[in-house]
Task: inverse folding
């Protein structure tokens, strides 16, 4: 059955069942993925899927049902399950659907450069990329992964309060992950492009960057385990932000996994720290006109010059906390919040200035095991890391595997220098280079 | 789920452009999840998933296409689209789909619908309340419960037709303890291929009180020291060290790509002689068990390392072709949206001879990592990292004080060779493992072990 026809039937059936309020979320996505290995296209993958979620409001609560099979025979099951899920809940605070008539912003999401991408021979690009990586240096041991993904999706939200919005997006992403070897030591590095810059279409350039990154890690030395001044590479700090963005969620405050609930208007970070969640960002990877609840997107400055301005809210938490929604709802029966282009705003220093002013310390380029080494409730973290020694204000020798430990609440206070080199990761988090006060390091 | 004739037609279409192997994986699953927190039923979710993935090999290259538009026309179109990714001379392949006889192990005793969602939620609330009432220092508890029934059909051009149904459930409890401005959390869980009997025969009150006691003891833990030291790793989830440090590197996915430190080491001493390890998907009702893997090969118990000697890899069909090895029933995927590859199931270090007490009393200075958190590994370098959720200092053969915030780092082979004592208290523990074919339920396990001279990263 065609999706629109199915949605219409489900809508009618839900109305006929005397459900007070309900909402239908629908998404459809298509995807192509290519992988090269040893001079051949190793994998081609195609996807075409659709997904539907019905949410219903019973009393104060919203319950929902996810359905990956859009067949008419499932309509009674979808309604029954969603109603049952809603009526089971006994939350005291009220949940909401969005139904106000509002203007939606016009946004420009990041997409590949159309003219160039349309004529790109994607398979040849990957074959050239792999070949260029091997040709770059004889120390290249293995191109472990060399891939391209592209996709488009469309999602829509329609509810019984009159909301009916939809959005489309298309994206492309290519990446390479390789290892290099010297004197029995193996190191790896990766590089990716989104085809949104002219240089992204040059496989040699991309291979060169990945190989150089990996070669720099060879011949690592060890340093004593103690406290060092730390400079985070921009993308590395963006990865760190991704781990700790939960701190700023009103839902996390509710669930006691953030201690920032009573810190509004207070200084929680160093001078000059500005943290933003901006779904309207021109060309952003997570730019969108509305959130998962259909609420219009807006720019939220979370920290301004070190002072906490707001938490991120959905319709439910905003009502509970007595504030306006911030447009960070996930939708359906999800209680949490979502993020868009979430970034630490740029400062004025170049990376070279930051290293110069730091003098001696450790430059961290990668964090590992971040999914496990962070205690949401205490803010304590303990991550694996890769990095380099900073000597006389310059990046010096590579270091053996590291751990870096501390507490995120303290980290925000300990930020000393902020770079002008803001960069986003494909996950939608962004940061410039950042220098922080000494942190405990252990080195293998 | 799908008619045999239609499946044969789909496979024939898939082979129409010269592929030499075609396979379809059909999955129909139903999942339920409940979340209770602070005495309330906060969320109840459920969902139905139905879709198919078609895979075609051309030598060792492959195409994968998936869809959840499950009508005949679209399925054939999906096969056709996949076939367009292959350009080779059409081979004359005939097949006759025959049922693969499977021993249907892991049957559940009490079907999920024996109890209403409300009754399940009430039980969760009761367990949470035990945890909350354990001490006035416990400020919040929450519980999660998930249940899932997964029907799968795998049919391929080798003539295999394998259907199976697996039900799986898991319960997780969190306790948060607070004293002044210090807040700490503890978690524990149990799960497996169970229906509602998951909760039977367990002392749920004791379970809940133990979780709270863990959270409370963490409040007074000191910062963990940093540096190289001997580490005794506790049993059960401690097996995550083997999973990360070694297991991933023994998957054919890494071996075939020359992206593992275990490449070319078959028959060689890769671990200390006191280490014997298995991957065994056949353990009755274990969280990571399956009857048949996701490409239609029966599962088996595989001896990976025997007395330190590398004996076997985990091999899926495609990487097996690349390596010249037969698949051994370990090809898995999260769902139909992923092409399968070699993955772990229930992976563990077997019992040794020492008692845990002997191991600790034989350690003059180090850390007892009683409960491990998660971790990750770079299979190409062998470098791993993982977190310790509950740790103690060992001084002069005795456990002295509790410490927190420890991270262990090192490289796989080095750690395997530095295991010098293996205990006799092996248990298994549930986990979720993420890799290229998605997130799948896996079990880790080990007895208590001692690793000499490992780098510990702490806050001091």
Result:
């Amino acid at each position: 059955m065609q999706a629109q026809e199915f949605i219409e039937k489900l809508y009618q059936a839900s109305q006929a069942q005397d459900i007070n309020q309900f909402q239908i979320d629908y998404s459809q996505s298509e995807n192509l993925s290519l992988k090269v290995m040893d001079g051949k296209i190793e994998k081609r993958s195609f996807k075409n899927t659709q997904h539907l979620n019905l949410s219903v409001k019973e009393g104060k609560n919203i319950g929902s049902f996810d359905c990956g099979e859009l067949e008419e025979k499932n309509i009674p099951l979808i309604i029954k399950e969603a109603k049952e899920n809603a009526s089971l809940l006994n939350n005291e605070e009220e949940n909401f659907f969005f139904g106000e008539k509002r203007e939606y912003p016009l946004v420009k999401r990041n997409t590949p450069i159309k003219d160039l991408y349309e004529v790109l021979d994607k398979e040849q690009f990957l074959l050239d990329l792999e070949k260029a990586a091997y040709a770059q240096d004889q120390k290249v041991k293995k191109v472990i992964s060399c891939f391209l993904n592209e996709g488009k999706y469309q999602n829509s939200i329609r509810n019984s309060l009159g909301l009916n919005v939809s959005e489309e997006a298309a994206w492309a992403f290519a990446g390479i992950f390789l290892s290099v070897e010297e004197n029995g030591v193996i190191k790896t590095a990766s590089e990716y492009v989104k085809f949104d810059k002219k240089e992204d279409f040059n496989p040699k350039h991309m291979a060169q960057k990945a190989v150089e990154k990996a070669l720099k890690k060879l011949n690592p030395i060890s340093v004593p385990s103690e406290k060092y001044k730390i400079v985070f590479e921009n993308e590395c700090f963006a990865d760190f932000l991704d781990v700790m963005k939960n701190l700023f969620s009103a839902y996390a405050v509710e669930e006691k996994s953030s201690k920032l609930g009573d810190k509004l208007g207070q200084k929680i970070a160093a001078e000059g720290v500005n943290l933003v969640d901006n779904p309207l960002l021109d060309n952003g990877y997570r730019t969108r006109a509305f959130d998962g609840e259909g609420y219009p997107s807006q720019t939220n400055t979370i920290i301004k010059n070190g002072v906490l301005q707001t938490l991120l809210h959905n319709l439910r938490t905003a009502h509970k906390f007595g504030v306006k929604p911030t447009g960070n709802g996930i939708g359906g029966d999800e209680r949490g919040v979502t993020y868009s282009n979430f970034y630490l705003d740029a400062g004025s220093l170049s990376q070279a200035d930051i290293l110069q002013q730091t003098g001696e310390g450790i430059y961290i380029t990668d964090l590992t095991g971040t999914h496990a080494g962070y205690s949401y409730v205490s803010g304590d973290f303990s991550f694996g890391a890769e990095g380099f020694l900073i000597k006389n204000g310059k990046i010096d020798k590579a270091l053996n595997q590291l751990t870096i430990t501390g507490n995120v609440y303290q980290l925000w206070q300990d930020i000393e220098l902020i770079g002008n080199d803001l960069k986003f990761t494909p996950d939608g988090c962004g940061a410039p280079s950042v220098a922080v006060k000494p942190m405990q390091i252990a080195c293998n | 789920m799908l008619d045999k004739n239609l499946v044969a037609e789909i496979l024939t279409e898939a082979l129409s452009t010269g592929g030499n192997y075609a396979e379809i994986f059909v999955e129909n699953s139903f999942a339920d999840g409940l979340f209770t927190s602070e005495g309330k039923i906060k969320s109840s979710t459920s969902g139905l998933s139905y879709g198919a993935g078609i895979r075609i090999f051309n030598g060792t290259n492959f195409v994968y296409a998936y869809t959840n538009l499950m009508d005949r026309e679209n399925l054939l179109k999906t096969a056709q689209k996949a076939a367009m990714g292959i350009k080779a001379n059409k081979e004359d392949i005939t097949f006759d789909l025959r049922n693969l006889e499977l021993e249907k192990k892991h049957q559940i005793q009490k079907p999920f619908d024996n109890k209403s969602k409300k009754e399940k939620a009430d039980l969760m609330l009761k367990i949470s309340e035990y945890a909350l009432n354990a001490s006035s220092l416990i400020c919040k508890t929450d519980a999660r419960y998930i249940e899932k029934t997964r029907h799968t059909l795998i049919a391929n051009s080798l003539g295999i037709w394998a259907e199976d149904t697996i039900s799986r459930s898991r319960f997780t409890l969190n306790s948060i303890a607070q004293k002044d401005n210090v807040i700490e959390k503890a978690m524990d869980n149990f799960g497996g291929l169970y229906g509602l009997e998951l909760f039977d025969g367990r002392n749920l009150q004791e379970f809940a009180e133990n979780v709270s006691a863990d959270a409370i003891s963490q409040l007074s833990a000191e910062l963990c020291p940093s540096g190289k030291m001997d580490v005794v790793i506790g049993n059960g989830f401690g097996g995550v060290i083997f999973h990360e440090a070694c297991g991933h590197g023994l998957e054919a996915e890494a071996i075939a790509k020359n992206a593992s430190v275990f490449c070319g080491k078959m028959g060689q001493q890769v671990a200390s002689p006191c280490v014997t390890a298995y991957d065994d998907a056949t353990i009755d009702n274990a969280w990571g068990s399956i009857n048949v893997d996701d490409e239609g090969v029966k599962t088996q118990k595989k001896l990976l390392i025997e007395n330190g000697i590398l004996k076997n890899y985990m091999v899926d069909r495609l990487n097996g072709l690349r390596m010249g090895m037969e698949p051994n029933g370990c090809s898995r995927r999260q769902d139909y949206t992923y092409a399968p590859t070699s993955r772990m199931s229930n992976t563990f270090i077997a019992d040794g001879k020492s008692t845990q007490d002997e191991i600790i009393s034989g350690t003059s200075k180090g850390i007892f990592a009683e409960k491990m958190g998660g971790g990750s590994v770079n299979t190409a370098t062998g470098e791993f990292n993982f977190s310790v959720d509950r740790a103690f200092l060992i001084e002069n053969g005795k456990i002295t004080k509790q410490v927190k915030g420890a991270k262990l780092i090192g490289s796989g082979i080095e750690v395997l060779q530095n295991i010098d004592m293996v205990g006799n208290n092996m248990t298994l523990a549930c986990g979720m493992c993420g890799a290229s074919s998605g997130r799948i339920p896996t079990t880790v396990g080990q007895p208590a072990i001692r690793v000499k001279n490992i780098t510990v990263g702490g806050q001091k």
Notes: Residues 8 and 239 of chain A are 42 Å apart (CA to CA). The mean pLDDT of chain A is 95.
